[in-house]
Design a protein that fits this description.
The structure is a homodimer of 645-residue chains. The first copy, chain A, is α/β, with parallel strands linked by helices and 645 residues long. Chain A contains 14 helices and 30 strands. In chain A, the strands form seven sheets. The first copy, chain A, has a seven-stranded parallel beta sheet with strand order 18-17-16-13-12-11-19, covered by helices on one side. In chain A, strands 22-23-24-29-26-27-30 form a seven-stranded mixed beta sheet, with helices on one face. Chain A is globular and about 105 Å long. At the A-B interface, β1, α1, α2 and α11 of A face β1, α1, α2 and α11 of B.
Chain lengths: 645, 645
């Protein structure tokens, strides 16, 4: 008996990512020579902390493939395998049944069966053993009564009451990481609490909390806060990334640590830990989760630099080594000595300080620059969270080097930033989104699509006006179960300093945003997030792109796992001109040719249509760059609806 | 330092299949946080018998991917891995070079460099250590001379003379099975030596040898012989699979063993072992290799049944259990007790008897029904051949159950029969041939395409006449580097008993074939095999199918690894009517739009054409069902050639 393959698996032995509470298919290829019938079970257990093995029945899919449905009961790391064994008695019975169709001269076979029953009886309890012995006696007597007994269901049930598991084989277990649903689904909104104080006023947790109902009203699930810790003074950056801060400049929140405290402290101007607790409570009231930035670096003023000098890199002359990306140097930031002699204490401290924030109500972390820290650190750090706080979700800011991005995901990051931010053409968007939404990548990687971030105001947003903002939002919000925008996006802020850098970037100064502003797209944001809330299809990872005959139109189809909800989306990629295109509809979506059409509800306009097989004509414009339809089975009276052109 | 992935690999840790002497690419993903420069080597060695580790340089392909070209020196099993390390000094020098573009205040950096050099010196020999100490001294003096020295190539070469391999990481080794070229390339011809004796005469090795020049003239590389051993008398089958043999009936050669001997003996009517040696010599003279059938079952008269009763399955009443496929029984065949108590001696005996035939000049084996024997047996058997006779090639007769077919290939079968025999539609042919010619399947599985076998005269050949025989031959011979036909194919023998069974099957009787017969396609066979000999593209595994707008026309493009030879093929799938189609030509084949066309030589007609971008019009008919062109770079005087329509 050979358990040949277990599926799904991730190359290199890393865990497959799945969602707790959601059914997932565990498959195995079971091979046994000849015509021997086989059976098997999935065996699974939680690891770290280790739990008892449990079993699930396997059903045959044909072609030697078997499947069990597994619902991870809770977030955490699991392992599973398949144990399979030959069904010796069932095989014998099956062969006997087929032979009896051509002959009754089967005494040799009956003798074999009797011997088999006696072997089984030797492993059975007394009452079963007695029944099996009686069956064997009847079989040995031969003739038609013996054949009838041999083929009886009662005998089969006695003989298989004790499966041949002493003949079983078990594959090497593979791992599965179950996360809570928020790990693979959600709309994120990033904002700087310090900017919420009104004109020229430093914001506080209280003023930030006042903004939460509005963010919730736009339909977001998560608010992501850049670092909220004390900011260093040494080497502080001025406005627009000036190397010298002017008096009153607030500095970059990523220069963490000052005499007021380090990673466990809050910036005094934002308030106290009590104020933060109130902010957490307000977020909960608005139905928002809090994601905090996790930046593992320090300002030269961080308390750890005095208390734990061995955690930092020094030059041979004893001076502290500041961060750099040659020829650039960052005088406001120093790096940890990740692999230095005191790394065990350092790693523990970073774990502990992260737990502090979990205890204070933070349930997600966006990790800054994880690719500049050693992969073995993340493997250790994330494994410990899987063990001790499996509900906490980590988003990796890995914009560069796709293999590092995937390497971080394999080590347990739940989500990652993506190259979506720079993909603009129809074919490159489609190819990239297909890559990350299908196995093997989707088995360990989940993309969180951001049209902008404080670091990236892409060129297409700088030039394309509100139409571009709507288009990029629709791509992110309707093509991915997880996406996010950085504050100001809904106001179509688009002024750059140079390259992709925002002018007067909030990274270095307070930015006051009036509540309303001409050309804002708050209602559009709210509409798309409302569609996501209403349609499970838009929160699932199932997506199929559709062929279009215009390079300016990207279209796709999404559905939920139960296939009760299906949504068709088309988005224009050109913010400057209207475009029309034929969208080829997938056969799976439509009834067989000649059958009745399916009903479609226009999600942007609310009208109902009937969708007929073939191609769908879509016209989009800079003013109306998105079309979406919910597709359901046809209604009884199909004449009540107009047809698509 | 992390060696993240090694490529190629086969799921489950089985070896990747490659050809000895042919360059293959070994890739690795090397990940190191930040901007650290890295280096690495491929380390490889033969296993079983184990050889010393050897190294190959890795070159960067960008995006953290590295590659080495490996040429397996000889057939056998290898393992390889990648060892990689950070280049600390080179990284320091690279950063210093970039920083110097903006500042000269680099004394801290120079101090770091000096310390690094002193560390390296501690691991260096005396003369290098002295030079490194002098470099360090100059660096510590600071100023422009120190910077010049720090960036000098001489210093780099001294500092990197001893790579940082004490900081290296090495991945878990993976395996690669190298075979001789014949494992993945060749035209096979199957015939029964006993049928070569002329009308009503039992053939001999001598009469069979007389046929070899003709087989060689048709362009075949391998002659495959069904079993040539003594045939049992007990339960012998008569003509057309009759359960009772008439006097004089020759029986099935697959009922191996009689009083004259078993698997190591030859059938007395075929001749002696000396006659077989003469046959082997004749085959060599004709440039043909010999493949022998390897059928691990016995007739009830096999000597082993007396000498080694424990090797066979018995019923509880002590009677021998004959082979069966319920409700069918095969009274002329008994099976081994593969997993019985005496299996070690049985497995050894089967290995030894196979080696006997290797010693007698057989270099390939076609293994009968391997899927009815345990996979662990094949794993053991083939591993021992890899170790002791890695030049011997095994073809698996696994027609059923795709997962078993692939499971056998993973365990070391070089080739396998395929489902090609039953694929007739354009799309199903294309999909199947794509599946087996691309990774992951092509990394461990090599299909040997047979349009017919003694067991299978497919329905399309029974009905389609010579046109169908030409079409199926062209599909097998021109779409696959390995293919074979069973004798009579070139004569278009097409009479069935029932189902796919030949009438008057050669499995149970002698079949005399006159040398010529109206409607034979010997010349067509010879022509296609000649094309295979002339064109390396047709012996490679590279294939890309081309879109056609007729469901009756399959077209593809093949090329050799060096891309010096390229062949376009189109085959009609309809033996009854002519068809025309547009074949979309791949961009890689054609020059950029507007550039000069490429020259194409019509391989079936010999005329030259110029191929222009776009679609190629192809017309095929039952009389002329195949078109093929060799495509080469354009000649100087392109006006000498006509254009395709």
């Amino acid at each position: 008996m050979v358990v040949e393959r277990l599926l799904p698996q991730v190359e290199g032995g890393f865990p497959v990512h799945r969602v707790a509470g959601v059914p997932t298919q565990l498959d195995a290829i079971l091979l046994k020579e000849g015509h021997v019938l086989v059976a098997g079970v999935v065996r699974w257990r939680p690891v770290s902390p280790e739990g008892p093995w449990q079993e699930l029945p396997l059903s045959s899919l044909g072609n030697d493939r078997w499947r069990a449905e597994f619902i991870p009961p809770a977030p955490g790391l699991y392992e599973w395998t398949v144990e399979a064994w030959p069904r010796r008695f069932a095989t014998w019975q099956d062969e006997l049944r087929r032979k009896r169709t051509v002959t009754s001269a089967l005494s040799g076979e009956l003798g074999e069966g009797a011997t088999l029953l006696e072997e089984i009886a030797a492993r059975a309890d007394a009452s079963l053993a007695a029944r099996l012995a009686e069956h064997a006696r009847v079989l040995r007597q031969g003739g038609e009564p013996a054949l009838d007994r041999a083929l009886s269901p009662g005998l089969a049930s006695d003989a298989e009451a004790t499966p041949d598991r002493h003949l079983s084989s078990t594959a090497r277990p593979v791992r599965l990481l179950a996360s809570r649903p928020r790990a693979e689904e959600g709309a994120w909104y990033e904002f700087f609490p310090r900017s919420t104080g009104g004109p020229d006023q430093h914001g506080t947790f209280a003023t930030a909390a006042a903004l939460l109902p509005e963010i919730a009203a736009m339909g977001f699930d998560v608010v992501y806060l850049p670092p909220i810790h004390p900011i260093g003074r040494t080497g502080r950056k001025g406005r627009n990334n000036s190397p010298h801060a002017a008096p009153g400049d607030v500095g970059s929140p990523w220069a963490i640590g000052a005499e007021e405290g380090g990673h466990d402290a809050v910036h005094p101007q934002l308030g106290t830990l009590g104020d933060f607790a109130a902010f957490v409570a307000a977020a909960r009231k608005s139905g928002l989760e809090i994601a905090l930035d996790l930046t593992f670096q320090c300002s030269p003023d961080h308390p750890w630099i005095r208390t734990h000098p061995a955690w930092f890199q020094h030059r041979p002359d004893g001076t502290l080594k500041t961060a750099e990306n040659p020829p650039k140097r960052y005088d406001d930031v120093v790096n940890f000595d990740w692999l230095g002699p005191d790394r065990a204490a350092l790693w523990d401290a970073l774990y502990e300080v992260t737990c502090t924030w979990v205890d204070r109500g933070v349930s997600l972390f966006r990790v800054d620059n994880p690719h500049t820290k050693p992969l073995p650190f993340w493997e250790w750090f994330l494994a410990r969270f899987q063990r001790e706080h499996p509900e906490v979700v980590f988003l990796s800011e890995a914009f560069t080097r796709p293999e590092i991005m995937y390497g971080l995901a394999r080590r347990g990051f739940h989500q990652s930033y993506t190259y979506f931010t720079w993909r603009t053409g129809r074919d490159e968007l489609r190819a990239y989104l297909e890559e990350i939404s299908r196995p093997p990548v989707s088995d360990f990687f989940c993309g969180n699509l951001w049209p902008n971030t404080p670091d990236i105001l892409p060129e297409h947003l700088q030039r394309g006006g509100p139409a571009a903002f709507r288009q990029r939002l629709a791509l992110a919000a309707l093509a991915s179960p997880v996406y996010g925008i950085y504050a100001g996006y809904e106001l179509c802020e688009a002024r750059a300093l140079h390259g992709e850098e925002y002018l007067d970037s909030e990274k270095y100064q307070l930015v006051h945003r009036p509540n309303e502003r001409p050309g804002h797209i708050r209602h559009f944001v709210a509409r798309l997030n409302a569609l996501r809330r209403t349609h499970p299809a838009l929160r699932s990872r199932n997506i199929q792109f559709l062929d279009t005959d215009s390079p300016f139109l990207l279209a796709w189809w999404r559905w939920d796992d139960a296939r009760r909800d299906q949504v068709l989306v088309a988005v224009s990629l050109d913010p400057y001109a209207p475009h029309s295109a034929h969208v080829t509809l997938p056969a799976e979506l439509l009834p067989p040719a000649g059958r009745r059409p399916v009903e479609a509800v226009d999600l942007m306009g609310g009208r109902r249509h009937l969708l007929t097989p073939g191609a769908l004509d879509v016209s989009l414009s800079p003013e109306s760059p998105v079309a979406a339809w919910a597709v359901t089975p046809p209604p009884r009276d199909e004449h009540a609806y107009e047809y698509f052109a």
